[in-house]
């Protein structure tokens, strides 16, 4: 049975609806997902299937985009300086040879502290302050600044501690006050109790036999960098897919993986970042977007064991996922399949969420088709 497609598209975006329907038709009968896009601050796509328009999902590492936007705002304000040493804000971080690392390098996944030797408890993973305390004492797994690797579960905590030391406010508090509340975004770093009924639990990956064979063939040693980065070596190994289903994680909203959002919330945040929305000016100036979208780490990612690229906090989306986007596009994907980005050249802001964890993790494959369809329609306007 094919899922019914709900929602609206603006004139000229009818092909996006058709592409979304085609993607949904290839999914399981219980598919739930949402797609939203803005062009130059105007909503042009608002579609969903298998759920209601107001459902919220765990968006995993798409959360990192919100964290990066907070840091970008504070750099733009002059509160933070990218080329200052992290220890200027956070002296304790100097332990074990990390004293020379700059904030710029920290944001570009070059710190080398992707985890700790013994791993984290669930309570620590949910609390950025506790993570920061553990990471400050950790010896890095490579010499800081000389290489890069995805700080999957901890990059937000590292940024959060710098923000807290510089402002006296947590990253989540700054996000709420300057980004989420002014725009009424359905993208929460710390889900309020009254919003809990809207949350839809993440469903586990359901791989085909062929997909499972590929997963089984991947290196799984307990002390690889990937295992350490995803806390699989801890006394209680982390089941990544279950993190947003845990009330403690949703309530605290850790800035690496704890965000809860709709596609509207994801796209709305990126629209606000680069475009005038309503009567409000863009959050970021063009020079700030260009700085944070500039390539800072490109090449072999020591954690992912593959070619990756990062700007400052953001993935460089045109290189990482969608080569048809303009150079300097900023965004971030999430392990369950969520994807969100802003393309300053076309004025496009994109958000996608889904309930079931996608194979193989990261931006779900359908994002390629959907983002291309939206981008083509945006350029044709």
From TrEMBL:
EC class of the enzyme, as a word: hydrolase
UniProt GO molecular function: hydrolase activity
UniProt superkingdom: Bacteria
Keyword Metal-binding: no
Protein name: Serine hydrolase domain-containing protein
Its EC number(s): 3.1.1.103
Keywords, ordered alphabetically: Hydrolase
PANTHER family to which the protein is assigned, alphabetical: BETA-LACTAMASE-RELATED, BETA-LACTAMASE-RELATED DOMAIN-CONTAINING PROTEIN
UniProt keyword Nucleotide-binding present: no
Domain Beta-lactamase-related: 34-359
Short name of one Pfam family: Beta-lactamase
């Amino acid at each position: 049975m094919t899922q019914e497609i709900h929602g609206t598209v603006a004139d000229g975006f009818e092909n996006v609806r058709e592409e979304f329907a085609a993607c949904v038709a290839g999914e399981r009968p219980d598919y739930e997902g949402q797609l939203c896009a803005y062009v130059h601050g105007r909503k042009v796509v608002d579609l969903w299937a298998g759920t209601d328009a107001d459902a919220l999902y765990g968006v995993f590492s798409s959360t990192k985009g919100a964290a990066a936007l907070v840091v970008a705002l504070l750099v733009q304000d002059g509160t933070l300086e990218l080329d200052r040493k992290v220890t200027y804000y956070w002296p304790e971080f100097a332990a074990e040879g990390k004293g020379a690392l700059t904030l710029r390098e920290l944001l570009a996944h070059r710190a080398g502290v992707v985890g700790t030797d013994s791993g984290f408890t669930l309570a620590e993973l949910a609390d950025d302050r506790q993570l920061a305390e553990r990471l400050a004492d950790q010896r890095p797994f490579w010499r800081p600044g000389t290489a890069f690797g995805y700080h999957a579960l901890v990059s937000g905590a590292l940024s959060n501690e710098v923000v807290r030391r510089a402002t006296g406010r947590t990253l989540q508090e700054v996000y709420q006050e300057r980004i989420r509340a002014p725009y009424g975004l359905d993208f929460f770093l710390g889900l309020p109790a009254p919003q809990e009924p809207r949350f839809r639990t993440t469903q586990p990956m359901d791989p085909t036999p062929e997909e499972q064979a590929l997963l089984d063939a991947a290196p799984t040693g307990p002390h690889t960098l990937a295992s350490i980065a995803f806390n699989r070596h801890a006394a209680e190994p982390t089941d990544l897919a279950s993190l947003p289903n845990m009330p403690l994680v949703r309530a605290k909203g850790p800035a690496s993986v704890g965000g809860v959002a709709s596609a509207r919330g994801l796209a709305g945040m990126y629209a606000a970042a680069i475009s005038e929305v309503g009567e409000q000016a863009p959050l970021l100036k063009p020079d700030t977007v260009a700085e944070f979208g500039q390539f800072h780490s490109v090449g072999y990612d020591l954690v992912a064991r593959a070619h990756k690229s990062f700007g400052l906090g953001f993935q460089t989306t045109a290189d990482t996922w969608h080569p048809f986007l303009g150079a300097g596009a900023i965004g971030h994907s999430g392990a369950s399949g969520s994807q969100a980005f802003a393309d300053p050249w076309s004025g496009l802001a994109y958000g996608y969420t889904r309930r079931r964890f996608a194979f193989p993790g990261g931006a779900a494959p359908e994002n390629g088709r959907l983002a291309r369809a939206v981008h083509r329609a945006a350029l044709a306007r």
